[in-house]
Amino acid sequence: MKVADAALDLVGVIEALYRFDLGNEAWLRLVASEVAPLVDRDRKGSVAMSVFCPDATQFSPTGVAEIGVSDAVSTLFRQGVPGLPPEYVADSFFNRSWCFSADLEGWDRIPGVSDGAAAALGVADLLGIGTSELDGRGCWFGSFQGQRRHLGRSERMMVTLVARHLKAAYHVRHRIENGQALPEAAGAVLEPGGRVVHARGAATSPAQIERLTRATRGIDQARCRRGRGDGLRALQSWQAQVGDGWTLVDSFERDGRRYVLAVQAQPTTPGFHLLSVREREVVRQALLGRDNKVIAYELGLAQSTVRVLIARAAVKVGARSRRELLQEATRAEQAAGRE
Asked: Does this model's pTM top 0.70?
């Protein structure tokens, strides 16, 4: 992959990610189109998906957009998604912000890959960027690769920074889709030059105001002609998150005047209410003192899948280990028994 590419407008990619005025389908298609020059170097097409994935055993697309994908590859892709191995889902969707699929456990067991159909169509790998919320909703953008490859340092940095913006943008989009109006979610309103027009709560501290001001100016530097001419430098100027999890997004008044809204990430409150049915089953088995091998046998799962489900459940509950997870589960059961 070459860094210098006239078609590669990284600022355009970031601007597309923050288009909260678009519905899901239109947003997926726009981002897929904008990100294609970055990831689709073999011109085999790019794909965007919104997904619901409460745990590694359940991966369901809720929306798909394809750009430049042949009918044969599209059919292969759509047929392969329902058969994704849990280990592959966990490693690609939960554990990494971006990756080459062929490097992951389970890639060679995906339908279409295992039988050689992908290779016959000239597909050797997938380069994907994704993010997810604890409630299982998320999105993924990727492209089909004609050969196995590795990215150089600059390319890795580009993809990593785009992935950070995807995570920040999707979190804000998730809040909006859950019914919170964007202006109401803002902790501060700034002019493009960085002057704070309004601030409340955590955004009112002098240190935070200074960080938001600098970051707002950084966005304008990225958008100027010089910034757009150096994609990597523009990405470094435009921060995905500022200070304690603040994301800066555009807002336009009816007269066309532009403001910048500072929206702080609101992490989902951890707890057992976030666990999927399968995760609850695995935790319940673990509470009986059964190890992963026995749990896998009882539930008809692979041991590696049980390990993934335990780890994901721990993340959702806010536990740092299997032991802490089981301690929290025991306390939760005791509390429920007293009610």
From this structure: yes
